[in-house]
Amino acid sequence: METAVEIRGLVKTFGQFRAVDGLDLTVRTGTCHGVVGPNGAGKSTTLGMTVGLITPDAGTIRLLGHEVRAARALLGVLPEGLDLPERLTGAELLRYTAGLRGLDPAVAKNRSAELIEVLGLTKGAGTPLADCSTGTRKKIGLAQALVHAPRLLVLDEPFEAVDPVSALAIRRVLQRFVAGGGTTVLSTHSMLLVEQMCDDVTVVHRGKVVAAGPVSGVAAGGTLEDRFVELVGADVVGAGSLDWLTQ
Ligand SMILES: Nc1ncnc2c1ncn2[C@@H]1O[C@H](COP(=O)(O)OP(=O)(O)OP(=O)(O)O)[C@@H](O)[C@H]1O
Fold it and tell me: What is the ipTM score, two decimals?
């Protein structure tokens, strides 16, 4: 089986700071792969490079056997920051995106309507994006990533700011996508979510991979959260006493 994402020796430096430091990532086709790590670990920078939004300083990236540029039609992306055209409504944006992706207008209309319904966007989709809540914007961003039926989804924190019911809807959509042979790579801070929906996980710390493999293997008999804290916690959590907080 072809590998969906094959990254070797990825490096990105901002000024003097190496945000991504020789990172390797392998994502099997037809799986859901979680990328986790503490704040500032280099997850978004890695995903940005994976989809061609950030230029790497070094390293190689192959997506579904192609160079990044050649894989664009196969890719659905939910980027960090989610810069949306604020005056459009979600429904307008979806139809516009579908048009840019070359879909027939009737198909675009049908798919947009279906995504709006499935993701619980019926109310929000008619509102200008500037006036939408963070969670609604996130769901519209996800719908935008899905509308052209990509084969590889790269999602930067798709569950951030999303309510539990919407999170369940998103999970179901992603599960169906993967069951149909699609591949999803997502970053998240929720270890529970990774345990619930990912086959494999890569733990990134200070721009490097500190653990990778099947979720159960990385969790090593405990919870993924415990293992995560074990792997990165000592460096992340300070040891100050905060005595002044106790009266
Ligand atoms: N354009 C940039 N210029 C300078 N530094 C940057 C830039 N983008 C990212 N960084 C730095 O690179 C490091 C990695 O950032 P990145 O956003 O990839 O981390 P992350 O793992 O996604 O973090 P979080 O979980 O907080 O979203 C951080 O220290 C960040 O401040």
Answer: 0.97
